[in-house]
Amino acid sequence: MLSFPRRPLRVGLLREAARRARSPWARIAGAALALSLAVSPGVAFAQASALLDEGKALMKKGKLAEACPKIEESYRLSPRSATLLALATCHEKQGKLATAWSEYIDLSAAARKEGNKRLEADAKARGARLELRLPRLTVSVPRAAAVEGLEVTLDGAPVDSASWGQARPIDPGEHKVSASAPGRKKWEASVSIKRGERKAVAVPALAKDGSAAPEPAPAEEAPAKETAAATAAPDKGAAGEGKGAAGAGKGAAGAGKGAAGAGKGAAGAGKGAAGAGKGAAAPEEDAQAEEPAAAEEPEASPGASPKHAGSFVLEVGAAGGALIGLIDSGSFGDLSTYSYSYNILPEGELIAPCNDEVCHASFEPAIGPFAGGQAFVGVALSERLHLGVRALGGYRFGGGYLVVGGPSASLRFGRLWLGLTGLVGAVGQDAKVTGVKGEIPSELVDRNYGRTEVDVNAREGSLPETALVETLAFGGSVEVSLVLADLPSSSWTSGALLLSAWPTFMKGLDGFVIAAPVGLGYRFY
Questions:
Q1: pTM of the model
Q2: What are phi and psi of 435, to 5 degrees?
Q3: What is the chain's mean pLDDT, rounded?
């Protein structure tokens, strides 16, 4: 078995390492190694923890402007869920609602990956609560303003064309919207937005920049113009000697009587380019060719429709029609003055007092005219789809009322809006009383020949002829609206005049309710 001298070899290696350490490259490598150790994960974690503690202490003192950057730097060094929760809380207290809302969403996703269900639920609840107060800004670009190369920015950040016309959450405060395009003057606008507020900014058609370099003409235009000039100047042409449009004498570009003069210029009656003499016809053709160019980019119409997604929608109007109450059972006033009797023993009866729990009145159907109003509050998810809440209410002539409301959706087909609304609310009708009955306890039904209720002992004429019966009802309605006038504009009056009908069917606790209101309203959007 062979053996090697280990000690001499180790000593040689140490000497070689010492010799290499004297070289400048070795020193640079050593410095890089020391730097990497200085920012090792352990050191970064310690720095992040210290920054987090400082940020929390400042946040308790109300110094949010100092606290939030420290917590943000802590999260950058060591991204942990606890740090993100503190950062979102700090931004929420600072009033940066959209920033905090986005961080709560990220926190919920991180907690779900970690399996921390409690933190995930807490982050979702915080985000949902905050979402109700978020301001939203819609940046729309009308078709006339969407020129080639258009770039729209919000606070310096590009706004992708796919999000034009979409409402986006934004922090409350001052914001700047700008737009630029090649060969166009830059446009800027400032907008101030508050909590829960919704605003829209429309980018106008950018004006042409006269100081910008003109776009090069197509290559094929120059030969065409030269050919036209040569054809129109058989003798003394525009570029020839004498009195032509481009001549050195009294031509259009000459120093004498100019192109617009009354003498022999290009537009004059003499021998200019556009005259009947020997000038060329080229300038006239150029002027005609340039006319359409002025209409290439039409200015944005002040009445451009603002029906973009994310806009606030409000509809109000008057309604009237028929209200049919089929509530056959209920209570009226005080029933304690009445009593009823039923068998409790084979040879005896019990006289029981009435109350609202064991006695009820029966009523005839009630039909009468209805007059009131309706309102819809929501948001435009697109130009054709509106979601929100609708309320219907009014008075029934002859006695009664209807007050209901619930979630609603409307979809537009041309000049027709079709929608559905889920309704819940209170309905009352003044109807004729046909009698009062009392309930028999279930354990005594057999002793009373199977009857579950009996007539109340009421003296003749003691019952009221009519009474108001009320019930809680659930159901829905169908919306059918015709656009009588579409009036889009850039002001708050933008909207449409609608003729609408809402056939309604509802189930009460005792009976049914049918309504057929028709109304005229105005939908602001």
A1: 0.41
A2: 160, 175
A3: 76
